[in-house]
Amino acid sequence: MFDFSLASFDEIAHELGARLKALRLAQGLQQIELASRAGVSRYVVQELEGSGKCTLLSLLRIVQALGRESELQGLFELKVNSIAQMEAANSARRVRAPRKYLRKNATAPETTA
Asked: Which residues, other chains included, contact 48 with Cβ-Cβ below 8 Å and sequence gap of 6+?
C-alpha cells in the first residue's frame, strides 16, 4: 500500500497518475477515448499517467470522465473529532493584520515650543 505521508510530491503525483491509468484500463478505454470524454488532449492524459503532471482542471475533467468524481467528496473536508474542535472551526474568522504604519492625523493640533 502506498503511504502518501512518507512520499515526495513527485512520488504522490506519479502514484495518482498510475492509479488513473489503472482505472482507465479497467474500463477498457484507450487514452484517446478518455481524452475525448474529458475534453482534453491525448497528450494531457499521457502526461498525467506517465508523470502525474497536469493542471487541476484537467485532473478534475479526467476524474469525472472516469466516473470517479464522488471520490473527491471528502478530499479536503475538515474532520472534527471533538466539540472543542467543532467550536474552533465554527468561530474561526479571518482577522486583518495590524497596519504597519499609522497614518498621520492631519487634524491633530500642532504643538508650539
From this structure: 17, 20, 54, 58, 59, 62
Chain segment 93-102, per-residue pLDDT in tens? 666 777 776 5
Residues in the chain: 113
- Three-state secondary structure string covering 17-62: HHHHHHHHHHCCCCHHHHHHHHCCCHHHHHHHHHHCCCCHHHHHHH
Residue-wise pLDDT tens digits, 49-83: 999 999 999 999 999 999 999 999 988 887 777 77
Domains of the chain: 4-72 (1.10.260.40)
Model confidence, pTM: 0.69
